[in-house]
Structure formats: structure tokens, C-alpha cells
## 1
Amino acid sequence: MHRADELADRPPGWAALLSGRNAIRSLTLAGGVALHAANVFIAATTLPSVVADIGGLSYYAWNTTVFIVMSILGSTLSTKALAAAGPRAAYGIAALFFGVGSAICAAAPSMAIFLAGRALQGLGGGLLLAFAYAMSRLVFPDSLWPRAMALISGMWGVATLIGPAIGGAFAQLGAWRAAFWTLIPISVLFALLAAAVLPKGEAARGAQPPLPIAQLLSLVAAVFALSAGSVADDRISRMAGIAAGAGLLIGLAAIERRGTSRLFPADALKPGRRLFALYAIIMLLELAVTACEIFIPLFLQVLHGQTPLAAGYIGALIGVAWTVGSLVSSGATGRAASRYMLVCPALAAAGMAALALLVPAPNPLAVGSICAALLCIGFGVGIGWPHLLTAILKAARADEQDLASASMTTVQLLATATGAALAGLVTNLAGLAHPGGATGTSHAALWLFAGFAVTPALATLTALRRL
């Protein structure tokens, strides 16, 4: 009997998520995330070819800024979209936005048109990301949530392998437009799958809470200010952009605490609450990962003699290890899940500290150790990530479940934008461009990894105190 009770208490395995009707649901939700994530890397890889063909070099950085801003907007609108159209129709609309945006990018005769396509891609992608979390809660039992979260977050690791390969292959052939054309039939496929397996639902009746317009405007303005500061030419402008972004985020928090219509659950901005700690840990970890993913390929080429292709795939080790870690830990429950959430930021901090020692010194023989540090960061974040996301859903009030689902995507995207801006600021101040060369790059690597090792260290302290 005791053995039978143990088996009954054991959480369902991967077979429960990846068989029968659940398999198609998993493919639909995780596939939408993979589509968005792969597009991030496809666009980054093909962008030099895009600029060479249609011009617009001065707007190079705006491709990322516009895409992230619209992704954040999509994630914050996801709750409204679900209430207005129901899961099936809302997912189809998101896939439609993404497909139309891809078509505009593929056919763009100028950078202005290309940016319009990127905006639609971002809107659709942000909706798809948020829907993956929100609909996992709707279509799977709560015992499968950690595995669903692991599968969804693991799609970023898959995308780091597939996206650069697709984008690089088409760019190498001089056919960058084909890379975007290929995204259209995939968008249609996921829209059809959504129509087949997602619940139709009903549009919410009665009055809906108003959109948090003031918070949305503050959030969008903050991302633009941070992005502008990160690419500014002089130090004063950089600092002004970062300061303006920080001020807008502080203003957003103040509005959020007083407003009746919110972007985040009520306890998310209350220090001392479990939800606040969970969101803080996610954001601190995402900051460190973003800094690594942006600059590791450059540092490996300049300081360690790696080819662009090798450097790109070494940088992708974080995503691969993240996926493996998520899959390995996804079946844990209770104390085991709590331990993963505690160990997660500590491993990331150790990996960042190792990079601060290894990367600045030009030495091709150190590449193996650098790979090990990147794997430590990715695996560390991965083992805790599905449990952190699941904990947010379980800690949120019953009437704020949809809001919590959407806000997870918003926080991750905001952390990505903030991490990119701060990483650009740190490396530029440390001498990446002036004096530049191996000396400037070495100084930039030291300050970047030493500085960003603080974020997972703070996440570790937060986990120890609050989780």
C-alpha cells in the first residue's frame, strides 16, 4: 500500500504531456514560442544583409527596439484578447499578426516598411508568448504546469540552434527575404492547429477593466529611453537615456500601486511578498543571461581567436543548457522544486564570476573553460525557471491568474531590453569602442561580467530570504 501511495503521489511524467490530445496542444503552444524565438535569431543574423540591400544602417538598432516594444505591448494586451475572443480565436489572431508582419518584412522595399513588419511581428510574437503561459494553465492540469513551463522555456534553446542556421544559410545565399517568407506557412500551420485543439471559450460578458494606458505608455517610453541611451555616442547622452528609463520605470511602479487597472498582480510590487521575490529573481537572472548572449560572440572573436560561426554557437550554449536544465528538473515537486529555485541563481552567479576571470585574458586555450562557465549559467537558470514560473501562477490570487500569466512575459521582455541597454552602457564606458581593439575589449569584458555577476548574486540572496 505504501508503494502504491507513493506512485499515486508522483507527478505525471512527460508521456502525459506529449501523448494524445495533449501532444497537439503542447506542439501548438510551444511551437508558437519557438516561432517567435527563432525569428529573433533569424532577424539578427540576416539584418546585415537587409541593410546592405535596402539601406537604413542608421536605424539598425531600431529593429530590436521596435520589436521588443511591440512584444511587450502584445504580452500586456493578451489578457484582453483572451477575454474578448476566447483562446482559439485569440491565438489565431496572434498567428495572423505574426504572419502578416513576416510577409511585410519579406517584401519590404525600404527600412521604414521593414520596421513596420517588425512591429507586427513583435505584436504577434508577444501575444504568442503570453498565450503559451496563459493557455497552459487553461488546457493542462496543474500537475503538468512545471513540465509545460519547461517545454515552453526550452523552445528558446531550440531557437538558438535553428534560428542562426536558417538566417545564416539564406543570408549566405543572398536570399534574406526567403528567410522571412518561410515563417508565413509556419504561422498558418499553428493557427490551424489552434483552431483544432484549443478551447473555443466565450467572450467575456459585461464590463471589462480598462487598459492600464498610463503604465503601458511609461513602459514603452522607458524601453525607448534605455535603448536610445545604450546606442548614444557620448557618455552624457548614454547616462541621460539610462536615467530617463529608470525614472520612467519608477513612475510606472508608482502608478501601478495606485491604479485600479494593472499590468501586474497586486503583490508583485510589494517588497516582502512572495510574488515580489519571484518576479525579482526572474528579472535579475534574465539581465545576466542577456548580457552574456549579446557580447560573448564578440569577445570570443576578438580575444580568443574564434570564427564568427564558432563564436555564435559557443554563445548558444547558454540556451542549450537552459533547455536541458528545464527538462531535467521539470518533474520535481515540493522541497525538490524549492531546492532548484535556490540553487538556480547560485549556479548562474558562479558562472558569471568565472567568465569575469576567463574572458578578459586573450587565450584560445581558455575557450573550453569559458564553455563550461556558459553551460553552468544556462543549466543553473534552466533548473529553476519552470518552478519559478509555476510558483508565480500558484502565488497569484485566483482572480489574477490571467494577469500573472501575461505579466511573466512582460517582465522577461522588459529585463531583456534593460539588460541590453545596461550591457551596452557598461561596455562602452569600459572602453569597447574607445580605445577599442583587444585592450578595450578586454576591459569591457571584465567590467561586464564582474558587474553582471551581481544580479544573480542578488537573486540568490532574495531566494534564500523569501523562498
## 2
Amino acid sequence: MFQFESARGNLAAKPGHSNHQHGQAFDLNTRHNVFDGTDKIYEWLKLNGPKHGFVRTVSNESWHWEYRPSDAPTLLAAGRFKMDGVEDRA
């Protein structure tokens, strides 16, 4: 049985409502919200993810990326890698 944790602010989608379950979204082991340029995995994703159709879609989750091949070219052309409204805490 699934338990959804909310005491620490971690909200998981209910079963059947996650882009993870059908392979559109994935989580990578980045340094978890280190935005100072020292996380080599995250920095590589920022530069290369959109080239391959992957973009950031969730605020404050540097590890969460989604395959959005129709959105990625627009972001790439603008030098961006996050969907509108995705923000990060420093």
C-alpha cells in the first residue's frame, strides 16, 4: 500500500496520476537542489536535456525531468531548460 508523505513537504502523486508510471518522467541522482554550478549531472542536463527532448517541469526538484519533445525545441531556442513557472530556491 502506498503512503503519501506530506509532513516534510514531499507530495507524491496518487497512483494513476504520475508521469513516472508510463515513462514520461524520471528522477536522476543529482546533488538534490544544488544550483551553484557544482553539480556536474545537473549542469549537463541543463545544457543537453532539451537537445534530447527532456525538460524540467517541477519547481525545486532538480532531479525531476520529463520527456517533452514538443516543448523542448522552443525552450532550447530561447536558451532555457525549464517550463514556464518552474522556479528554484537557492
## 3
Amino acid sequence: MHNNIEMKEYFDRLAPSWATDESEKVIREEIQRMSDFKSGAVIADIGSGKGVMVPHLLETNPSCIIEIDISSEMIRFAKEQWDDIRIKFLCGDILQLDVPPCDAAVIFNALPHFVDRRKLAQKLASILKPKGTVIIAHSKSRKAINEIHREGISETLSAKLQSPLEEYENFKQYFSLDNTEDSSRMYFIKMTKL
């Protein structure tokens, strides 16, 4: 529980100055295309921040996007920015929240903050419908992400990003591995619920 309080306070402090990197828009668009979400899907955007993925997810014609973040400030800013009846907001720790059944879950630029990946995998399996999709993606290389998280973020708030195959070890009980990229431009894992 202490970790949740520390995490919430950390991102609440960052929220006012948290900015979208528009230079990464093309990568976000590519991640959305690679995700191949079906029209009418219910998509959970986990660790959503201010909703940087919202415009890309809206392009897939979802029936609902559920923005989920532990930071009430991030959610507050997201609510101010996105006014669409298809977008819902949940504030809290995904591991403890009651989330309606979803067709897909996206974790964009956030996986290192989920220190216990096995608990995350179990929760994702519990909220996803049969054959549901999980997307884990970063708009930078794994090396760049690990450098960011090494500088000034405590170990209670962040865990090193491993290779896609190493990360998949935490998820394989519940998901099959469909596609990965671990390159200088992006990090991407796509999985399907077993």
C-alpha cells in the first residue's frame, strides 16, 4: 500500500508539467496500427496519464475507452482534455480496481511502473474477455526507457524494462505471444488471452 501512495504522489506532482511529445506522434500511430483493434472494442488504457493515446485509440472506433491511472491529477487533466461519451475514467491502482470486461488493454509508456508484473498479468487476464488483446508499448527504445527510469526514480516506483521475451515470461500462463519489437525506435509486445 505504501508503494501506491508514493506512486500517486509522484505522478500527482508531475501532472501539471507532464507534456505530450509530439515528435513521437508517428510512433504512437504505428503502435495503434500494429495493435489492430477491432471496431466496437472496449479498450482499457492502463497508466493512461493525461490520455496521450486517446486520439489514436479513437481512430479504431471503439465502443468505450477506459482511461485508468493511479494519479487523480493525471485523471483530472485527462477529463479536462477529452470530452467524448465513449471515454470513461477510473482513478486508482489497476490491481485493486473493479474494471468492466474489456476486449483489449493498452499499457503505453508505463510498464516499468508495474513492479510486480505477475500480478499485473493476472489482473489483465481477469478483466479481458476471451481472446482479448494486451499491448505493451513504448515510444522509445528499451535502452532509452531504462536510462530514464534509472535517473531519479526510486526502485519502489520502477522496475527495469526487460526484453519482450523476458517480460513475456510473466504473462505466459494467461497469454500467447503474437508480436514483438525491441528496436532503437520503439518497444512493442502484443499478446492474446489464452
